[in-house]
Amino acid sequence: MSDKLERMKELVKLLNRAGKAYYQDASEIMSNLEYDALYDELMKLEKEEDVILSNSPTIHVGYEILSELPKENHSSPMLSLDKTKDRKALQDWLEDKVGVLSWKLDGLTIVLTYLGGSLVKAVTRGNGETGEVITNNARVFKNIPAKIPFQGELVLRGEAVIKYSDFESINQEIDEVEAKYKNPRNLCSGSVRQLNNEITAKRNVNFYAFTLVSATEVDFENSRLEQRKWLVSQGFSVVDGKSVDRDTILDAIQWFQDQIEQNDIPSDGLVLTYDDISYGNSLGRTSKFPRDSIAFKWADERKETTLLEIEWSASRTGLINPVAIFEPVELEGTTVSRASLHNISIMEGLELGIGDTVEVYKANMIIPQIADNLTRSKKMTIPDDCPVCHEKTLIKNENGVKVLFCPNQKCLAKQIKSFTHFVARDAMNMEGLSEATIEKLISKGLIKELADLFKLKDYKEEIIAMEGLGEKSFQNLLDSIEKARKITLGKFIYSLGIPNIGLSNAKLISKSLNHDFNKIRNATEETLTDIPGIGDVIAKFFVAYFDEEQNNRIVDDLLKEVSFETEDSSQIQSLKEISFVITGSVEHFENRNELKDLIESKGGKVTGSVTSKTNYLINNDNQLNSSKNKKAKELGVKIITEEEFLNMLELE
Fold first, then answer.
1. Are 35 and 102 members of one domain?
2. Beta strands at 241-244 and 267-274: parallel, antiparallel or unpaired
3. Nearest to 31 by CA among 16, 41, 18
4. Of 554, 603, 600, 553, which is closest to residue 574 (Cα–Cα)?
5. Between 126 and which of 131, 141, 356, 462 could a Cys-Cys bridge form, CB atoms 3.0 to 4.6 Å apart?
6. Residue 64 falls within a domain, yes or no?
7. Would you place residue 175 in the very low, low, confident or very high pLDDT band (cuts 50, 70, 90)?
């Protein structure tokens, strides 16, 4: 067998493995750039040898059907698109025709069918021949119309995506998301193909139409542009696109490129389609590509630089992720000096070593990546110890991908929730310390306990070098930390994260023990249960917390950094035994929490629901037909506005 055929077999095996990892296992074993290069090499060899292996990715589309969702064959194959990175080639392809140039979204392709104005079926692209029926999931997409004016049969194709902004917020909330999802596309795939559509609904999946397949007895004047306008009139979100011809297409490409930085919707290029529907259909298709459309992939700007170090970043899931640090280079108009390597498998594939000359680029002109290692020294070392807790690490094999893992359940990186609770608005109210930022600070060893948050001014250079932070963010953070040095004792107790101790209980304990912290930390279960509203369970957890030497050391270190604001006990009594519920927007306070704090500072109680024990419902719109208003009227609870509440305080 020839060397070329052997290479083809090797490429098919490698590309299929990478495709399975990306589409099914939500992981990555190589960059998009490396995948595209190997794919192009395989296509070149297939052309030279006039041989295509049966399992070649060049003749198969999409993922393999493995889930328990119902399956359905497509009426016509859903093909991928031929592609180019040459702008002039795109211009030549269009010739003298009018085209539609739009984003190529990076999500999951879905076929929707409407009948009688209602969504009756949604099917994924699947392997191009057979897809998965996800109708119930599609019904909970964030922007999909459940009913449309058109009553005939409508079939359209579009892309299900999760926006970057939603991905970031979801990434912080879902347990172990880092172990499962590396980018919005993977998260979207997992969300769309759920067996429980309640999970899909929580993931903020959006649908953007890009092709109208058929609509009975509607005249679109043979124009894709008219189809797009009609879809918008029916309530669909349509992929952003522009009408172009040979003279305007290059300017249009540049316009899209200029929008990339602020584009919140994941995209990996552009798509050009002939506006003339009949002409496009007359061109037919190849075994894999339709001839009426072509994809444009950004020609990534690549720069050579020197690898300075591999930074190992521990996370709350136990994964320790490698990050490449290199000499800063200018890419796509910004300076970059670091790129995620994702896992050990990718590092090994690049044969990295400190001092190597590497080529870097921005994937889809956004995310820094290492494209290639030109020197391949293989001088890579994998740490034996966790960078945070220094316990021994493990190398795990997850779906064929090697990852580094810290097995220590007490690792500080896994205790991140205690830090995020400490800095929360109802606790120390340290603005600018998101969970992601705290994770970075822990990973870099800048904070090891709660009191270290008050010493971040000593690490200015390290912090402003972090992604997403800078001089202004750092100064705002310091201002917020300084403000947090003065706090009420109730909020301080709550910030410690003692199990079962909410803010109202913390304030009640503080008030009942005369705001004397020594008396509070040495309180017995009997002393605490003597306080009305404090039961056995709360008392047990409270005493147990201060019985632990480690907790007392943490508290003592914090006491060196904070001072307690004096609380006026005479004020506290003015709303004693009066219960309030707050609903709707507020006008005289920054937010409802500020109003709640005022009520509680005067001895009042604020609850979340209206009951027979509620004295007042504070609502600036007492005519609003809300559930709380209805309940208050049913129970005879007085509804007052903020103005009336403030007048009540003036009459004290």
1. no
2. unpaired
3. 18
4. 603
5. 131
6. no
7. very low
Do 145 and 233 belong together in one domain? yes
Per-residue pLDDT at 451: 92
Query: Tokens 């098919």 label which residue?
Result: 12
Can you tell me which residue has the tokens 């994964």? 319
Same-domain status, 31 and 149:
no
Is the model's pLDDT at 67 over the cut of 90? Answer: no
- pLDDT tens digits for range 444-480: 888 888 999 999 999 888 888 876 677 888 888 899 9
Residues 148 and 19: their CA atoms lie apart, in Å, by: 37
Beta bridge mates, 244:
99
When pLDDT is cut at 50, 70 and 90, the band that residue 352 belongs to is very high
pLDDT confidence bin for 208, thresholds 50/70/90? very high
Structure tokens belonging to residue 96: 């003298």
Burial of 121 (0-12, 13-18, 19+ CB in 10 A): middle
Give every CB contact of residue 358 below 8 A, 6+ residues apart in sequence. 304, 305, 306, 307, 324, 326, 350, 352, 370, 371, 372, 373, 374
Tally the domains of the chain: 6
pLDDT attached to residue 176? 43
* Cβ 222 vs Cβ 277: under 8 Å: yes
Residue that is last in its domain, among 276, 296, 316: 296
Q: Is residue 267 part of a domain?
A: yes
Residues 414-445: tens digit of each pLDDT: 777 788 888 987 788 888 888 778 888 887 88
Element (H, E) at 542: helix 536-547
- 263 and 138 assigned to the same domain: yes
* Domain shared by 418 and 521, yes or no: no
- Rg (the chain; Cα; Å): 30
Q: Is residue 463 located within the same domain as residue 360?
A: no
| Phi, psi (rounded to 5 degrees) for 640 | -125, 155
Mean pLDDT of the chain: 83
- 285: phi then psi, degrees, rounded to nearest 5: -155, 165
Reduced to 3 states (helix: H, G, I; strand: E, B; else coil), residue 220 is coil
Question: CATH number for the domain including 370?
Answer: 2.40.50.140
pTM for the predicted model, two decimal places: 0.52
Domain limits for position 511: 487-567
Separation CA 394–CA 403 (nearest Å): 8
Q: Are residues 144 and 220 in the same domain?
A: yes
Among this protein's residues, is 180 annotated catalytic?
Answer: no
Which has more confidence, 33 or 496? Answer: 496
**Which of 7-16, 59-68, 234-243, 595-604 shows the lowest mean pLDDT across its residues?**
59-68
Domain of 130, CATH number, reads 3.30.470.30
Can you tell me the distance from the alpha carbon of 637 to that of 581, in angstroms, rounded to the nearest whole number? 10
pLDDT tens-digit series, residues 245-304: 999 999 999 999 888 877 888 888 899 999 999 998 898 877 667 888 998 887 677 889
* 273 and 343 housed in the same domain: no
Is residue 380 within 8 A of residue 401, CB to CB? The reply is no
Q: CB of 110 within 8 A of CB of 160?
A: yes
- List CB contacts of 75: < 8 A, sequence separation 6 or more: none
